[in-house]
Design a protein that fits this description.
The protein has three helices and six strands. It is of the alpha+beta class and about 140 residues long. The termini are far apart.
Length: about 140
């Protein structure tokens, strides 16, 4: 009986595959953590081949904000935004300069939160929220619930 050939990935291919699964598992976790309210939608910023593209944000989570905030604005006119960076496998956490870029992007877009999603094979993703330039482990329901 012939054995199936084992697929061997280059380090770059392995990193690309792990990053893709980190994004998939992050979206899964957010989708199934939501208790009520508007459903979160996702915008991924991947390159043509599925690899990561330029920029600090990997996923934008967006939903309609159904609470009227200001006079002249009706329910559903505004949005909640969460900027998400994903890390798969043994990828390092964002550097201080990456954190500064994330903060500037969040301020510019008035994001509700900045989240780092870390995923390793065989586990569910861990979510970290950026609070005062440090990553704090958080429950997905606290941000996306």
């Amino acid at each position: 009986m012939a054995r199936d050939p084992v697929t061997v990935f280059s380090p770059g291919q392995k990193a690309q595959k792990t990053a893709r699964w980190a994004r998939i598992m992050t979206k899964w976790l957010i989708t199934y953590s939501r208790r009520n309210g508007a459903k979160w939608r996702f915008v991924e910023f991947g390159g043509i081949t599925g690899a990561e593209s330029y920029g600090i944000v990997d996923i934008l989570a967006i939903r309609k904000d159904h609470k009227p905030k200001k006079e002249g604005i009706k329910r559903g006119d505004l949005f909640d935004l969460v900027l998400i960076q994903t890390k798969g496998g043994n990828a390092r956490f964002p550097s201080d300069s990456d954190i500064a870029r994330l903060i500037k992007a969040a301020d510019h877009h008035r994001a509700k939160a900045v989240v780092l999603a870390e995923w390793k094979l065989g586990t569910k993703p861990n979510l970290y929220q950026l609070v005062d330039r440090t990553w704090q482990l958080t429950n997905p329901v606290d941000i996306f619930g």
